[in-house]
Design brief:
The complex is a heterodimer. By secondary structure, chain A is mainly alpha-helical. Chain A has helices at 18-23, 28-48, 50-71, 89-119, 122-126, 132-160, 203-206, 209-235, 242-255, 263-269, 271-279, 281-293, 299-320, 326-330, and strands at 170-178, 189-200, 296-298. Chain A has one domain (34-330). Chain A contains 14 helices and 3 strands. Chain A has a 3-stranded mixed sheet. Chain A is globular. Chain B folds into 2 domains: 1-92 and 169-263, P-loop containing nucleotide triphosphate hydrolases (Rossmann fold), CATH 3.40.50.300; 101-167, Up-down Bundle (ABC transporter ATPase like fold), CATH 1.20.1580. The longest helix of chain B has 18 residues, at 182-199. Helix content of chain B is 36%, strand content 24%. Classes of the chains: A mainly alpha, B alpha/beta.
Chain lengths: 337, 263
């Protein structure tokens, strides 16, 4: 084996003076390189794992082609915003299935972070000179990028099933809410929808605009679920404990939401369950996506998703902070004494 | 150059040690794993951190790399306090962790480019640095292969290459040769020792394998979280009155059974 230990001066250690090192603050360009590198790795890893791609695609398609087809006749969906006419059940649950893709992808990211922590791979990320909050946010956005690829693969297949966003002529702001019972009447209620036009769309864009207007909603919902998963990855001590996440987080979040049935249907069945569904942040992810596919911004969902994202992200950053968080108290990322 | 307890104030650039650990303690709950640990790695020195499994070596590394927060004492890399100036300190640090941290699904080059990005280097620059670093460890021709195709020793060399890409002044290696065959071990040790000699890199080499200590090395013996000895190898033998590093270690730690385990 021939090895050379002569480093090129460009990468040789110890060639900077202290003054140079102190002066070499990491600029915006460095942050950009770091961000790109983290996102690139997430996408690359995903593309290398073809099984993951197909399983992520097959899951919502089974729901769409089998579950929804079976329920089409038994579950009628009346005209509720943002729909302007009766819709097929498949069309109703499509935003819920998109939410499902985001939810499973976030939990998959969380799983891989627990695995990385157990194997020690997480350490390479955390010893980077960039702020830890920036590193975690970049990793989060990397996961969301992967989720977006999955969502568009799903929408592509759904297009052949004639599940397509409607023609959109203008972007609208939608407001309608009812303060939950347990909150009293602090926010009052807007029981009739208030719809405000924001901007008209050019004709050539109108037919496929839903595929574009949904992007911000996907990003926000992906960030919210990713932040939650990131926080959970700091709480979960071992990989084996992850099975509990399926039972206690993914399934309750998905089923106790508006993903599969409109909330008014749930209220008819159980007012308590209805309140639980309204308390579930995943409901607002689904509604944000549903309205965005119709070129509408649901203000309540937008507010809830932004607030939850901020809360979950702050909790995750706190948990991964070496001086304060849960990781430090328990013995660190992949750490051993 | 001898080991020193504190940062040298106001000295020339080259006189600032690669690493200073001063009065560091750490506990997990009620269990104290490090107790008032102090050591220095001067620039261009190969310092062996000798200790058995559970001595606290990995915890000390986690504190130096800021994976844990050091709440007592001070740690400075090239004069930068890791708590107050973490970004500057981590820029000067290269690490090879005890556990394997390469992504086995990616190629050598992709792994290294990812690391370069984590230090803020863009595509072209990152690729150049990666190629040069792989050249140093003799794996340039395999840069396009996936990591899973490498042997344990080769993967270790890639990790060393990765740790060099951002021009560190201090290299930490935590049990870098564990699990390697004798040929791979010698290869890894030789690469790192040559870097110390040719580039003036400060190295903290944590191990429980006594045969990796050379007569010219500095030795820090860590036992049950405490520094039992620090100094040159001749002093180590002289202090203990023993003829070999193994016997000296045994005498210092009073742990014959533990030494057999280490061997």
């Amino acid at each position: 084996m021939a090895t050379s230990t002569t480093l090129d001066p460009a990468i040789g250690p110890g060639t900077e003076t202290m003054a140079e090192a102190a002066a070499r603050r990491i600029g915006i360009s460095g942050y950009l390189a770091c961000f790109k590198g983290i996102v690139w790795r997430e996408v690359l890893r995903y593309l290398h794992q073809r099984e993951r791609f197909f399983s992520a695609l097959v899951r919502p398609l089974i729901w769409l082609f089998i579950f929804a087809a079976g329920f089409r006749q038994t579950l009628g969906v009346s005209i509720i915003p943002p729909y302007e006419s009766y819709v097929l059940y498949e069309e109703f649950i499509a935003p819920g299935l998109i939410g499902m893709i985001l939810l499973f992808n976030a939990m998959q990211s969380s799983l891989s972070m627990v695995y990385d922590r157990e194997t020690g791979a997480m350490r390479t990320l955390l010893v980077s000179p960039f702020p830890r909050s920036f590193l975690l946010l970049s990793k989060l956005l990397g996961g969301v990028s992967v989720a977006l690829l999955q969502v568009y693969a799903f929408l592509f297949v759904a297009w052949f099933w004639e599940i397509q966003p409607p023609k959109i002529t203008e972007i609208k702001l939608f407001t309608m809410y009812e303060t939950p019972v347990w909150l009293g009447d602090v926010f009052g209620s807007v029981k009739e929808p208030v719809v405000t036009s924001l901007i008209g769309l050019p004709t050539f864009l109108q037919a496929y605009a839903g595929y574009i207007t949904v992007i911000p909603a996907l990003l926000l919902a992906g960030l919210m679920l990713g932040s939650l998963a990131l926080f959970m990855s700091s709480v979960i001590k071992q990989l084996e404990n992850f099975a509990g996440v399926m039972n206690f987080v993914i399934f309750p979040m998905f089923f106790a939401s508006s993903a599969l049935y409109p909330l008014w249907r749930i209220r008819e069945a159980s007012p308590l369950l209805y309140e639980i569904c309204r308390f579930n942040p995943f409901t607002y992810c689904v509604e944000l996506i549903r309205f965005a596919l119709h070129g509408q911004i649901d203000t309540v969902s937008l507010g809830v998703v932004i607030a939850c994202t901020a809360g979950f992200l702050a909790a995750a950053v706190y948990a991964y902070n070496p001086s304060k968080g849960l990781i430090a108290r328990r013995g660190g990322p992949g750490g051993s004494a | 150059m001898t080991l020193q307890e504190t940062i040298q104030p106001g000295g020339a650039d080259s006189m600032i040690p690669s690493l200073v650990v001063s009065g560091v303690s750490h506990a997990f709950g009620d269990k104290r794993v490090l107790d008032n640990v102090s050591l220095t790695v001067p620039q261009g020195a190969f310092v062996v951190l000798l200790g058995l499994n559970g001595a606290g070596k990995s915890t000390l590394f986690s504190l130096i790399t800021r994976l844990y927060d050091n709440v007592s004492g001070q740690i400075a890399i090239r004069g930068f306090d890791v708590r107050r100036k973490p970004s500057q300190a981590l820029q000067k640090l290269g690490v090879v962790f005890q556990s394997r941290t390469l992504d086995s699904d990616l190629t050598l080059l992709q792994n290294l480019k990812y690391h370069a990005a984590l230090h803020g280097y863009h595509g072209g620059d990152a690729a150049t640095r990666a190629a040069q670093a792989l050249e140093v460890v003799g794996l340039a021709e395999r840069s396009g292969e996936k990591v899973r195709a490498l042997s344990g020793g080769q993967a270790r060399r890639v990790e060393i290459a990765r740790s060099l890409m951002h021009r560190p002044d201090l290299l930490l290696l935590d049990e870098a040769t564990v699990g390697l065959d004798i040929g791979s071990r010698e290869s890894v040790v030789k690469i790192v020792r040559d870097l110390v000699a040719s580039q003036g890199l400060g190295v903290l080499w944590a191990t429980h394998l006594m045969d990796e200590v050379r007569p010219g090395d500095h030795v820090v013996v860590l036992h049950k979280g405490r520094v039992m000895f620090k100094g040159g190898v001749p002093d180590f033998m002289k202090t203990t009155g023993k003829d070999s590093v193994s016997e000296a270690f045994r005498a210092i730690t009073g742990s014959a059974a533990a030494l057999e385990e280490a061997a």
